[in-house]
Amino acid sequence: APEFLEVRGEVYMSTESFQRLVQQQEENEEKTFKNPRNAAAGSLRQKDSRITAQRDLSIFIFNIQQIEGKTISSHKESLDYLKSLGFPVADFYDISDNINVIIDKIEEIGKMRGSLPYGIDGAVVKVDSYAVRELLGSTAKFPKWAEAYKYPPEEKATKLLEIEVNVGRTGVLTPVAIFEPVSLAGTTVSRAVLHNEDFIKEKNIRVGDLIIVRKAGEIIPEVLGVKEHAEGGEDFVFPTKCPSCGSEVTREEGEAAYRCTNTGCPAQLIRHLIHFVSRDAMDIEGLGPSLLHRLADDKIISSPVDIYKLKAEDLSSMERMGEKSASNLIAAIEKSKSRELYRLVYALGIRHIGQKAAKLLCEKFLSIENIIKATAEEIGEIDGYGEIMAKSAQEYFSLPETIKLLDDLKALGVEMKPLEKKSEGGVFQGKTFVLTGTLPTLKRAEASKMIEAQGGKTSSSVSKKTDYVLAGEEAGSKLVKAQSLGITILTEEEFLNMMN
């Protein structure tokens, strides 16, 4: 064995382990991971290592970073050596000096997608000789001796069985394609969002058609279009009444979406409650969609206020809810009362106001009282806010029912502590960042928090005011625009070095 060995690898979760984890999360009414990559990253970031140990993670070692006591001259030699030491190394690697053989190997690996016990999205071609690598060198960001080939998303044809229309928390009616199940990127899918009426008309989609589906980014199922129209198929007619409550639906000028006009719509209520308790909002652990449905069906809750009126005895008599579970849930509800102000504002589900916009609103006005008093013009002064966002926030906080909701929550102990003004200083003080692509280890939300903690701020679009673009894999048009404007592009490693 060498005197010193440092290796680099990639932690992953197998498809089977991921499916088991999701099933367990659903049974416990917890928020589920969207894909194995997120599950692996989330498991590694757990503060409690016991949870990480339960997640059935695996690893492939793909590089020797540093070695003492042994000389290795090529990448293949390093992989063979790692394998001899017992390290898990990817099964599919080969060496050739013939470009046609290399292309065939890439295609061969690509054909394995979906049949492997884990997901893959590409193949990497590297120069084998370390001496030649030294001669080729690297750019500021990437080695010149390696190239990643990404496979195009797998596409399949399937029959469209029906178009279901769902109602969201803001009343938006969203059509969803229900089709015969197909296997894509290692999982079986049977549903995909069709966005709106215009999308259906543009693609000329009808029930019974043979449609083409794929997973965007290997994650989200989407309908690309129609391969073959069904004989005698009829155009889809968007409903004029809400499928949940039967109220009229409207489509405002300049918008693609239809909305239910009934604020008391049961579907909107459930979606709103799910959003209110979600991880990024009030983060009430244990109060999942299934339990919220049961509580709403039993007329126990009909608004966020009712959540804070719940007592253990209301819950313990419910099916699959014993005394301990009820007690834990009440404790989680109590804990949520002291969440940051921006989380509450985000939890309210204001149209056009996402988590980041809620945070900016709270940072500008510091207290809920100041937000209520603010004019649309004052709100519009926030960097990143447009006229529509400012108007939406101002109108929401001027509604009598909003004031009553906030008063009721306050009376039940929900804290609405004013924010303290940010202290000056930090390595990113006054700097504006734009994040794009998938970072190797950090989630975008984590990187944003780190930037803000150091006095910087993040923006969703690149402009001349942007100081840095933090770019990961599959960075798109934002990266191109930043390069054209001469803005500094940072890798995650460079970003972390600046932090340190």
Automatic annotation (TrEMBL):
Query: Catalysed reaction per UniProt?
Result: NAD(+) + (deoxyribonucleotide)n-3'-hydroxyl + 5'-phospho-(deoxyribonucleotide)m = (deoxyribonucleotide)n+m + AMP + beta-nicotinamide D-nucleotide
Q: Which GO terms describe its biological process?
A: DNA repair; DNA replication
One annotated Gene Ontology cellular component of this protein: cytosol
Q: What is this protein called?
A: DNA ligase
Q: Which CDD domains match?
A: BRCT_DNA_ligase_like
Tell me the ranges covered by the BRCT domain, including all copies.
Answer: 423-500
Q: Which family does it belong to?
A: Belongs to the NAD-dependent DNA ligase family. LigA subfamily.
What Gene3D superfamilies does its record include? Answer: 5' to 3' exonuclease, C-terminal subdomain, 6.20.10.30, BRCT domain, DNA ligase/mRNA capping enzyme, Nucleic acid-binding proteins
